[in-house]
UniProtKB/TrEMBL annotation:
Record keywords: Metal-binding, Zinc, Zinc-finger
Protein name in the entry: B box-type domain-containing protein
SMART domains: BBOX
Segments forming domain B box-type: 81-121, 126-167
Gene3D superfamilies: Classic Zinc Finger
GO MF term (any one): zinc ion binding
């Protein structure tokens, strides 16, 4: 079992759970029932799916199976080019009411027929409103006077010197303009990203350098203290050894030996006291980070220098450039 995203009759996308071996006809059966399942054509990723085709397993909310009522789409008999009668249909001309392959469509829609509205098979054509001045004509053109006009308007005195673009071409042009605009946005974001990446790297480097300095100072303090304690331990052990020897002499009651050892012990004690006086206590290196409390303020002031300044330049440049051309 797996989930399938689908849409029918331009409703909101929905999800259904079906068997992994299901065909399109099975999916239609589950959604529309036996009576209505034959009334729908199935499209996925721009391709027509036959009832016997396997249900795609990689559908998503944005890439879903689309069911369109056969009354609203081309007949299956039109899946072959009406002109060459051999190639697969790619486009439907709304004005000619004929289906073409890509080659025939490009061949026949030149000059006088270039304004015809051609849509890819499976894509719903643009719905055109009626002209208010010419009720039998549809609004098919966008004029550079910023009005939607029909063919009769285009040939009239009011618009004959104007530039009119077919709405179908305008739609494609706006898509290209949107792509260019997105690229421009991405490019404009790059300096911001690069600048803040550099700032973060600088801050990280300064933080690392400060921590390394602190670590070096603490190591010096620890080394100095350990050296002092080591020397004290050596002196203490030597004194303990002499005391042990003197106590051994006392225990023998040998007064001659005791008098001889007294002088030796006195000399040693005098030497030890001299060495202890000369032994300097470890000096601990104190440190502090100056102006650390002002660091946040400095960073805030730097960041305030980067700001977005809005300016109104009228309509989208890329879209306007397309219409004017």
């Amino acid at each position: 079992m797996f989930n399938v995203w689908y849409q029918h009759d331009q409703n909101a996308p929905m999800k259904i759970n079906i068997d992994s071996n299901s065909a399109i006809s099975d999916l239609q059966q589950d959604i529309f029932g036996t009576t209505d399942k034959e009334q729908y054509q199935t499209m996925y990723n721009g391709k027509l799916l036959t009832p016997s085709a396997k249900v795609p397993q990689d559908t998503t909310h944005d890439m879903l199976i689309v069911f369109t009522k056969i009354d609203n789409v081309l007949s299956p008999a039109l899946l072959q080019c009406d002109e060459c009668l051999s190639a697969e249909v790619n486009f439907r001309c709304i004005d000619c009411k004929v289906s073409y392959c890509a080659t025939c469509c490009a061949t026949f829609h030149k000059r006088a027929l270039a304004h015809h509205q051609r849509v890819p098979i499976g894509e719903k054509p643009i719905e055109l409103n009626r002209c208010e001045q010419h009720r039998d004509a549809k609004l098919k053109y966008w004029c550079n006077c910023e009005k939607l006009i029909c063919m009769d308007c285009r040939l009239s005195e009011q618009h004959k010197d104007h530039i009119a673009v077919p709405i179908s071409e305008l739609k494609a042009g706006f898509k290209e303009a949107q792509t260019s605009l997105n690229q421009a946005i991405t490019q404009s974001m790059q300096p911001i990203t690069q600048t803040f990446d550099a700032l973060r790297k600088m801050i990280d480097n300064v933080e690392k350098a400060l921590k390394n300095q602190i670590h070096t100072i603490e190591e010096k303090n620890q080394t100095s203290t350990e050296s002092y304690l080591k020397q004290l331990t050596i002196k203490q052990k030597a004194l303990s050894d002499h005391n042990g020897k003197f106590e051994n002499i006392l225990s023998t009651n040998d007064h001659t030996h005791l008098l001889e050892a007294k002088q030796s012990l006195t000399n040693y004690l005098e030497q030890l006291m001299k060495e202890l006086k000369e032994l300097k206590s470890p000096i601990k290196i104190q440190y502090c980070i100056e102006d650390v409390d002002q660091l946040q303020t400095s960073i805030d002031n730097i960041l305030k220098q980067a700001r977005i300044v809005e300016s109104v330049l009228g309509n989208c440049f890329h879209c306007r450039e397309f219409v004017n051309n």
